[in-house]
Amino acid sequence: MRALKSRRSFPPRTCPTPFTWRGCCRTTDPASSRPSTARSTAATNAPWKTIGVASARYEEEGLVEFSGRTWRPAFERWTPVIEATSGCAWGRCAFCTLYEQERFRVVPLERFCRDLDELKAVVPSARRLWLTGGDPFQMGFRHLEDRALAVRDRLIKMQTIAMFASVRDIKRYSDRELHRLSLLRVGGLVIGMESVDDRTLALAGKGYTARDVTEQCLRLERAGMEYSLIYMTGLAGDGRGRATARRTVEAVNNLRPRFFGTTSLTIFPGSRFERRVREGSFATASEAERIDELIELVRGLSFRTFFDARSPTNAIPVAGLLPYDRDRILATLDHARTHIDEDALAAYRRELREP
Ligand code: SF4
């Protein structure tokens, strides 16, 4: 690790940290290339112009060391980040090629503590911390407890140690372990559930069922651990979007995620979905159908949550607090649906690239 060269604001004010919303959606910032249909219906200055690979820049700045691809949701863009893992131990999601070149690795505790000391020198009053890596919750109870204790010892005002997590990983923790981690301020889990429909989950290779999603999220709630859910439109394929969205709404209405975000399936080279499309065994959903899917979600979600469909993969960016902004979001989506330029939106999606 490099020594801290100077006391700078953290993250550096000039650092664009082009992180993307859900690590798994892996796209560059296409803000300037969104088609006019999307721009005219955009929900104000969307913070989707954010996330990406932070490692190089942070290393340039001489702050905390990053060895792998670093992702975090746009709403965490001002949260101090620290590397806890790199790569993804699962690596089998059919739409994802993000960590193909990286092996999953847990950052040794010693290095984690050194990074924490440096971070403390810059932001001693940090109340929130984002652990990087495809899925740091994979590291298991002992590793996570050690790191949470290290954070507690150094950053005494810490309230939330947030990270990506998967439904698969929550199953590995006992109720007692979840409760213990919750007491140690582990929370703010961002879960890329993608769908709560068995067929769609199997198609995506997520490694869990619809029932697992609801059971494991309820366990988090009982443990007092806050979490957010991410849904992926278009994942079920042509003609199946609305039914999948309805099934998802039915299931998640029993849950209380703090935040409900959406991404949209984008076929990246090298993914299993790309092969399926080439072989003709998977037909992608149209952009109009994806909007219908979003409408189904916004109409159906009955709990109070922040709904955010502003990641670059959402051709029509909308966001707002449900239920208060429901009508406004639906009006935007209805307008986009009526005036849709399918070719322009499809071209926009084709231009999306991994960073
Ligand atoms: S869990 Fe799936 S989507 Fe997320 S990084 Fe791993 S392979 Fe990609």
Q: Could you walk me through the main structural features you see in this protein, from its secondary elements to its overall organization?
A:
The chain has 355 residues and is an alpha/beta fold. The chain has one domain (23-341): pyruvate-formate lyase- activating enzyme, CATH 3.80.30.20. Helices cover 37% and strands 14% of the residues. It is built from 13 helices and 10 strands. It has helices at residues 36-40, 55-61, 109-122, 141-154, 167-170, 175-183, 198-204, 210-223, 241-252, 272-279, 287-300, 326-338, 342-351; strands at residues 81-83, 85-86, 105-106, 128-132, 160-165, 186-194, 227-233, 259-264, 305-309, 318-322. It has an 8-stranded mixed beta sheet. The protein has a two-stranded antiparallel ribbon with strand order 2-3. Strand 4, helix 4 and strand 5 (160-165) form a beta-alpha-beta unit. Residues 1-33 and 35-60 have low confidence and may be disordered. Residues 23-24, 88, 90-91, 93, 96, 98-99, 134-135, 166, 192 line the site of iron/sulfur cluster. InterPro entries: BchE-like (IPR051198), Elp3/MiaA/NifB-like_rSAM (IPR006638), rSAM (IPR007197), rSAM_horseshoe (IPR023404), rSAM_sf (IPR058240). Its cofactor is [4Fe-4S] cluster.
